[in-house]
Amino acid sequence: MLSQTLLEEALAAEGWTLPTGAVEGLVRYAAEMLRWNRRVNLTALTQPDEVVEKHLVDSLHTLPLLRHTRRLLDLGSGAGFPGAVLAMAMPTLEVCLVEASAKKTAFLRHAAVHCGLYPRLQVRQLFARGQAEAEGLLGFDAVVSRALMEVGAFLPLAKNYVQPGGKVLAMLGKANPTQRPDMEALAAAHGCRLAEFRCFHLKPSGHERALACFEVL
User: Fold this and answer.
1) Peptide bond into 82 cis (omega under 30)
2) What pLDDT score does 173 carry?
3) Could you give the dihedral angle defined by the CA atoms of residues 215, 197, 71 and 153, in that order, rounded to the nearest 10 degrees?
4) By the 8 A CB rule, do 51 and 2 touch?
5) What is the pLDDT of residues 183-192, one digit of tens each?
6) Could you check whether the bond before residue 177 is cis, i.e. omega within 30 degrees of 0?
7) Can you tell me the distance from the alpha carbon of 33 to that of 166, in angstroms, rounded to the nearest whole number?
8) What is the mean pLDDT of the chain?
9) 121 with 112: CB under 8 angstroms?
10) What would the pLDDT profile of 105-125 be if each residue is shown by its tens digit?
């Protein structure tokens, strides 16, 4: 069973403190996801400790890069990671989750209401093609995705949804600091700059992760 204590211990290990009610909300969200997952395939992770580390905590690693964001677009949100987690952790953040799968969008819409995030958390069933106006996806300060596609394809797609000065945040799998020059070259090729490239390890598994944050020029 996914308990509040399990999440609190994980947050303490990272040295993080979340706003009042956020921990309880995240536990409720994850528990509802696991309940749905028994009949709808939302995630391959079913053990509470894995869900906490590889879904919740992994998503929260993006917080420092989105502190001043008002409206966030999560492309290919899947079961709501990281967008729904960020909506729970940032009480003033407006989030739009875009997901092509009907069964996953059904869960996301249910969870938004069930966890008290609606209407601040919106859900769209859509295969994003970078046509922001036609798709009705305008006015975002930042776009985020977790392993939706290779970053070389994601950046030119995502930049269409933010104005100059906006952020594109790519959550990557295994990566290392030596890839920074490649990320800088990629940014320059698409009219952006690499604002931050950070590699880290999830606790306690030690699984490698990386975050690339691009600013649209």
Assistant:
1) yes
2) 83
3) 70
4) yes
5) 999 999 999 9
6) no
7) 31
8) 95
9) yes
10) 999 999 999 999 999 999 999
What is the DSSP pairing of strand 94-99 with strand 71-75? Answer: parallel
Report which of 124, 122, 157 is spatially closest to residue 143, judged by C-alpha positions.
157
Q: Supply angle C-alpha 8, 45, 205, rounded to 5.
A: 60
Nearest CA to 87 out of 137, 150, 42, 21 is that of: 21
3-state SS, one letter per residue, for the chain? CCCHHHHHHHHHHHCCCCCCCHHHHHHHHHHHHHHHHCCCCCCCCCCHHHHHHHHHHHHHCCHHHCCCCCEEEEECCCCCCCHHHHHHHCCCCEEEEEECCHHHHHHHHHHHHHCCCCCCEEEEECCCCCCHHHHCCCCEEEEEEECCCCHHHHHHHHHHHEEEEEEEEEEECCCCHHHHHHHHHHHHHCCEEEEEEEEEECCCCCCEEEEEEEEEC
- The single residue listed with the structure tokens 């249910």 is 110
Cis preceding-peptide flag for 64 (omega within 30 of 0): no
Look up residue 4 and give its two tokens.
């509040």
Residue with tokens 């699984």: 207
